[in-house]
UniProtKB/TrEMBL annotation:
Pfam family for this entry, one: Methyltransf_25
Naturally occurring in which organism (per UniProt): Micromonospora aurantiaca (nom. illeg.)
Name under which the protein is recorded: Methyltransferase domain-containing protein
Domain Methyltransferase: residue ranges: 48-144
Keywords: Methyltransferase, Transferase
Length: 288
């Protein structure tokens, strides 16, 4: 699949999901976004670029930190996501936030436009992520900081999801997916630079960053029921898998996941899955 076709498919999937993205009663992207902003720590007055802003999981925590003297620009390749972020900014009355439709690989800003660049579960979808990282280094001021999150990719586990899903999603069902969305293809794509901390640090250094830090921690994913989780899984990157399943396969997988996830709940309590997340931070070299 050509990079342009891949990006078109990803953008279309998120565009279709924009109305419900992260809005179905599951807590995950919000807590992860807030944690990323905490780790990057933008200061009052800073200018922040949020790549793949979605509905604002990082956008609004960053806006609160930089205050009225600062500015946060969110970009997303999916127009529906940008409209959702704009509407949320208007609802909250947040005046230091701007959202634009823009390809995260081709950021169109002058050099040294930002103090901080962030991206939560977004940079990893870019076909030419190494080129994008070099461009982020250029739009940052000297000593500017970058931070992004990704799943903790591990060889042999289902990409993007907590390890428990490796046993819950049958491999034979996934054989019906287009080759580029099968687990082994995704592992080749993402594990090659995201699995090993040394590879990650080398990628960041090659892009022009220094002091790269790779920090792993669990972020609780909380859903009321297994059914709520499955419905929510159609509103983010996993939609790319659902969209390629046959109706029968999708129905069978839905029933299987709901049953298994509900069995993991503590009685009538919510489903809670500790989800391994990788937080990567670095900075551009300071002026000497």
């Amino acid at each position: 699949m050509k990079a342009s076709d891949y990006k078109t498919e990803v953008a279309a999937a998120f565009d279709r999901a924009a109305g419900t993205y992260d809005r179905l009663g599951v807590e995950f992207f919000g807590p992860m976004g807030r944690r990323l902003v905490e780790r990057v720590a933008p200061a009052p007055g800073h200018r922040v670029l949020d790549v793949g802003c979605g509905s604002g999981a990082c956008l609004f925590p960053a806006a609160a930190r930089v205050g009225p003297a600062g500015r946060v620009v969110g970009i997303d390749i999916a127009p529906g996501m940008v409209e959702t972020a704009r509407a949320e900014a208007a609802r909250r009355g947040v005046g230091n936030v701007e959202a634009r439709v823009m390809d995260g690989e081709r950021v169109d800003f002058p050099a040294a436009s930002f103090d901080v660049v962030i991206g939560s579960y977004s940079l990893i979808f870019l076909p030419d992520v190494r080129g994008a990282l070099r461009r982020y280094a250029q739009v940052l001021v000297p000593g500017g900081r970058i931070g992004f999150t990704s799943p903790q990719f591990r060889t042999g586990t289902f990409p993007f999801l907590p390890p428990v899903f490796t046993e819950l999603i049958p491999n034979d069902l996934l054989r019906s997916l287009p080759e580029q969305w099968r687990p082994e293809a995704l592992q080749r794509r993402f594990n090659s630079w995201l699995e090993g901390p040394a590879d990650l640090r080398a990628t960041m250094e090659a892009a022009g960053f220094v002091d790269a830090d790779v920090h792993d921690e669990a972020v609780p994913l909380v859903a009321a029921t297994g059914e709520v989780w499955v419905d929510w899984s159609h509103t983010h990157g996993m939609r790319l898998m659902w969209d390629h399943l046959t109706a029968d396969d999708a129905a069978a997988l839905r029933a299987r996941l709901i049953k298994a996830l509900d069995e993991m709940r503590d009685g009538a309590g919510p489903l809670v899955i500790d989800t391994p997340v990788r937080f990567v931070t670095a900075q551009t070299p300071p002026v000497r």
